[in-house]
Design goal:
50% helix; Rossmann fold; 17 helices; globular; alpha/beta; 5-stranded mixed β-sheet; binds glutamic acid
């Protein structure tokens, strides 16, 4: 089996050189899928794996804009339309200086499996730009978004490709992007999700990824007769996903002791309560400040340039970005008694870290399963836009709860090993794959 995996990866690598993040995502999937394909030759014969690892389309474009000094700036824009077998391309936009084709291909690839797991009719895509929103004025953000959409509009649409947010793209950016799309096309449609609640957005969308990852962790814990109540929780990140993970952990009676940003992390052994969380939300969403200010205000420790994995915890939520948990971090987490790692970010654990979690037989969920709540509620936003109707908070939240339960169930179904250990990584990859692969089989060689 190892040889088959190696041969396959060598072939993919030869077509995708210098794309380490994409290869990392493909390797994880290939290791789970190839043994399954060997037992199910119909997928092998139709070269599903060869096709699913090749984007249907990749768009790259120039994004010129004028900064506040009237200087011309140039960024690169992307949209990777990875797979549309089960629905229009769907996935966020990331604005961050690290963005390149490898990162967007890995994200789009993950999105295909994640979106399939939600049970909703969404294909997979991802896009973004190397534009750095940090330190930019509101006017600059608007001009950039308008220029970005002036090219992107011709490639997206409510039944074609529906972008949303990701790192560096939140409600403000979706607003500017939507405004420009509407102006160019002269139509009000659900071309983006994550819209404001008064103009076509869904209630619970801002909360969805964070709430969803906590729901998923609760289901994982339940398989071992455990609960979140009373547990100590370590969270990385302090953006949208981290904020609502913290909120739901608080509601469940757990103690959240860390948050981070790209400069460092804060450690609050007392626990981040509702008032402190409101401070973080205002700091990050309105003032766009740094997490260090939390430590200054509440007099707790701040660890510059470090990640929070050395803080002893029961449960860890890596909610910042890819490859933020390495092998050593994973060993530290396990050594300190961590029993559950649920990823709110996309691919935050390196393959070596995942190996450590699996060998220790702790509960480990890959982002494509545990962070699917965000895109799931995006799917529900699309449904509401098509209905020209809005559901209540409870209606959306109950649907989100059910979807996360169902994803957990799929992981258990496809991922339970002989000794009873649930390999959520394998379960998520197989469960996500089968639906897309069957759709590809049915639709012929396209
Ligand atoms: N960027 C989010 C993700 O990684 C959300 C995508 C969406 O809502 O389309 O799933």
């Amino acid at each position: 089996m190892d040889t088959l995996v190696k041969e396959f990866l060598a072939k993919v690598e030869s077509r995708n050189q210098h794309e380490p993040e994409f290869m990392q995502a493909v390797q994880e999937v290939a290791e789970a899928i190839i043994p399954f394909i060997e037992q199910n030759p119909k997928y092998k014969k139709a070269k599903i794996l060869e096709r699913i690892t090749e984007p249907e389309r990749v768009l790259m474009f120039r994004v010129p804009w004028l900064d506040d000094q009237n200087e011309v700036q140039v960024n690169r824009g992307y949209r990777v339309q990875m797979n549309s077998a089960i629905g229009p391309y769907k996935g966020g936009l990331r604005f961050h200086p690290s963005v390149n084709l490898s990162i967007l291909k890995f994200l789009a690839f993950e999105q295909v499996f994640k979106n399939s797991l939600t049970g909703l009719p969404m294909g997979g895509g991802k896009g973004g730009s190397d534009f750095d929103p940090k330190g930019k004025s509101d006017g600059e953000i608007m001009k950039f978004c308008q220029s970005f959409m002036t090219e992107l509009y011709r490639h997206v649409g409510a039944d074609i490709d529906v972008p949303a947010g990701d790192i560096g793209v939140g409600g403000r950016e979706v607003g500017y992007l939507f405004g420009q799309y509407k102006r160019i096309k002269g139509e009000f449609t659900g071309v983006l999700t994550g819209k404001g609640a008064t103009w076509g957005g869904s209630l619970i969308r801002p909360e969805a990824t964070g709430y969803g990852v906590v729901y998923f962790a609760e289901d994982m814990l339940e398989t071992r007769g455990e609960r979140l109540t009373g547990k100590t929780v370590v969270i990385s990140g302090s953006g949208n996903v981290a904020q609502y993970t913290a909120e739901m952990c608080l509601q469940a009676g757990a103690k959240v002791v860390t948050l981070s940003d790209s400069d460092g992390f804060i450690y609050d052994p007392q626990g981040i309560d509702a008032e402190k969380l409101a401070f973080v939300m205002d700091l990050k969403n309105e003032k766009r400040g740094r997490i260090k200010e939390y430590a200054d205000k509440y007099g707790c420790e701040y660890f510059e340039g470090e990640r929070p994995w050395g803080i002893p915890c029961d449960i860890a939520f890596p909610n910042a970005t890819q490859n933020e948990v390495n092998e050593e971090d994973a060993r530290t987490l396990v050594k300190n008694g961590c029993i559950c790692v649920a990823e709110g970010a996309n691919m935050p654990s390196t393959p070596e870290a995942i190996q450590v979690f699996k060998e220790a037989k702790i509960l480990y969920a890959p982002g494509k399963a545990s962070n699917a709540g965000g895109v799931a509620v995006s799917g529900l936003e699309m449904s509401q836009n098509s209905l020209r109707y809005s559901w209540s908070r409870d209606e959306v939240n109950n649907r989100l709860r059910d979807i996360m339960k169902e994803i957990h169930q799929i992981c258990v179904e496809y991922g339970t090993e002989e000794d009873g250990y649930v390999n959520y990584e394998k379960g998520a990859n197989l469960g996500g794959f089968v639906k897309v692969a069957d759709a590809m089989l049915a639709q012929g060689v396209v």
